[in-house]
Structure formats: structure tokens, C-alpha cells
Design brief:
316 residues; alpha/beta; ornithine cyclodeaminase, domain 1; Rossmann fold; six-stranded mixed sheet; 11 helices; 14 strands; oxidoreductase activity; EC 4.3.1.12; ODC_N; ODC_Mu_crystall
Length: 316
């Protein structure tokens, strides 16, 4: 059995190959039960979350990811997310690999956002704003920059020092990134806004979105979490990674559905329909598009297979 640590997982999941692997999985025949989602009490702190995400390709591969989310880990200098992915043979059940789940999650989440932007952002989008300074932020910057000519990239966080740290890390990869202090001004001019926060109140206001903007929401994964407001929902054409997940777990979708601001019929498409071409994405340069992702187990399976086959091909 292969064991891939964080660095080995990162090396095995190059952005172009990962984005295409996820696209292929969304277009394919992956079986994906709704994930298990459990709140866990942490005395004296915010509740933690345990996620179990199974998926399989019949007769080929099967896998499950176990992820924990401890929001207060930032105070300890630790990542909020830890996890492990277990990949097995879909024909025999033999265990094939244990893969670092934190790195897999961060990279597949960002790659899925970049895949969605392929269909939803303007082709000439050249300015990106990333909100959040956690593990996802650098990955979102790199993924959105893959195959797209971005002239301006900004990163914003409530902690200015952390935003500057992300910008500095991005420059190591040859990306010209600036730490942003005026969020509203940056949002007004951005072509793509990507939010990867754990906020329970809106970070981006709908009145800030310019015609043609694409709003990418990937941080919130509970019904009480929100990264944007009802004005965004009213102004935008809404898309999701999966209807089953987003309408059950995503506060940016669940809350507007409950209040009547959004109806199920008003969700234009889920990502598999965009990839297969059965429903259109952006149809007008002036449309505002919104993509809400809560994460799908097939994305993890796609990444795990890619990592396993890459490592095996390199003699790991």
C-alpha cells in the first residue's frame, strides 16, 4: 500500500491534470452517496465537524475521505482541516493508498472552482480577488491562474498580516499578488471573486458585483455559514457543484431557499450538467454568475486516483 504525505500528494496533483481529472469524473459514472456530516462538541470552543465522504467507480476504484474541521485551530497555529483519504480497488477491495486528506481537499476544491469558472467566468476575465487567508487561498489563486491570463490578483483577509503572507507565498510561484485592505473597492473591479472563508455572515455584498462578474463560494459547508448576501442571490445566475449537497448543506443556498429569495428551479445547473453540455453556463458577458461548492466525494476520488497512478508510475 502506498502512503503519500502532504508534499507527495501536492507533487502528484498538478493543476492541469487535476482539473481535467475532476472534469472527467463529473462527466462519468461515479457513484456518490450523500456524505456523512457530524457536529462534534469541543468544550469551551466552537463545535468541530467530522465528514465521511465515500465514492466509487464500479469495478475500478473505491475510496472514502475522513476529514475533521476544527475552526479554532487557528489560535493554536494549526490548520482548521485535517484528513486522510483511503483508496481501494473497486474489484477486490484491496487497500491501495492512504493519501494526505488536507492537501487533497485543498487542491481538489480549488481545481473544481477553476473548472466551474471555465464555464461561468468571462473568457477575458483578468482580475481575481480571493477572500480568506487559510489553506485554500493560495490554492485558489494558483488554480484560477491556470490557463487564464490574470493581470491583477488581490487577496483579502481580516488579518492584514496573513493576507500579506499569502501574497508573499504566491509571488514565489511567479504570481503577482497584492494584499488588499479595501475589500469593497476590490470587489467592485474584480472579474472573479473567490471566497474560501469559514464566515457565518456575508463577506461579499451583492451590490458590489459589477456586470459580468463571477462569484465563487467555496468556504461555507454548513447551513449557518454564509459568504454572500441575498442581493447576490437575486442578481446572479446561480450554479452549484451538486444540487443534493448544496441544497442540504450550503448556507448560501439553504437560507435563500428557506426565505423564498431563491427557488430550486432558479438553480441553473450543477457542475456535471455544465461539463456534459446538457445545460449552459454563462450566455452573456454582462451576466453575473454565482457558483456555490460544498465539495463532492467524486472530486476526492478523482484526485486520489490521479495521485495514486502518478506515484505508482514514478516508482513510489
Amino acid at each position: 500500500m502506498l502512503v503519500l504525505n502532504e508534499e507527495q500528494t501536492r507533487t502528484a496533483l498538478a493543476w492541469p491534470a487535476l482539473i481535467e481529472a475532476i472534469a472527467t469524473m463529473f462527466a462519468g459514472s461515479c457513484v456518490m452517496p450523500v456524505r456523512h456530516h457530524h457536529d462534534m462538541e469541543v468544550p469551551g470552543e466552537s463545535d468541530a465537524t467530522l465528514l465521511l465522504m465515500p465514492a466509487w467507480l464500479p469495478g475500478q476504484y473505491m475510496g472514502v475521505k475522513m476529514v475533521s474541521v476544527f475552526p479554532d485551530n487557528a489560535e493554536r497555529g494549526l490548520p482548521a482541516i485535517f484528513g486522510t483519504y483511503l483508496l481501494s480497488s473497486g474489484r477486490t477491495g484491496e487497500m491501495l493508498a492512504a493519501i494526505d486528506g488536507g492537501e487533497l481537499t485543498a487542491r481538489r476544491t480549488a481545481a473544481t472552482s477553476a473548472l466551474a469558472a471555465r464555464y461561468l467566468a468571462r473568457a477575458d476575465a483578468e482580475e481575481l480577488l480571493v477572500c480568506g487567508t487559510g489553506r485554500l487561498s493560495l490554492n485558489l489563486i494558483q488554480a484560477h491562474a491556470e490557463g487564464r491570463e490574470l493581470k491583477r490578483i488581490g487577496v483579502w483577509g481580516r488579518d492584514r498580516g496573513k493576507a500579506q503572507q499569502v501574497a508573499d507565498e504566491a509571488r514565489v510561484f511567479g504570481l503577482n499578488v497584492e494584499a488588499i485592505t479595501d475589500l469593497e473597492a476590490a470587489a467592485h473591479s474584480a472579474d472573479i471573486i473567490s471566497c474560501g472563508t469559514l464566515s457565518s455572515t456575508p463577506v461579499i455584498k451583492g451590490e458590489w458585483l459589477k456586470p459580468g462578474a463571477h462569484l465563487d463560494l467555496v468556504g461555507g459547508f454548513k447551513p449557518d455559514m454564509r459568504e454572500t448576501d441575498d442581493i447576490s442571490i437575486r442578481r446572479a445566475q446561480v450554479f452549484v457543484d451538486t444540487r443534493a449537497g448544496a441544497m442540504k448543506e450550503a448556507g448560501d443556498i439553504v437560507q435563500p431557499l428557506k426565505s423564498g429569495v431563491l427557488t430550486e428551479d432558479a438553480i441553473h445547473a450543477e457542475l456535471s450538467e455544465l461539463v456534459r453540455g446538457t445545460r449552459p453556463g454563462r450566455t452573456n458577458d454582462d451576466d453575473i454568475t454565482l457558483f456555490k461548492s460544498v465539495g463532492a466525494a467524486l472530486e476526492d476520488l478523482a484526485g486520489a486516483i490521479l495521485a495514486y497512478e502518478h506515484a505508482r508510475g514514478n516508482g513510489a
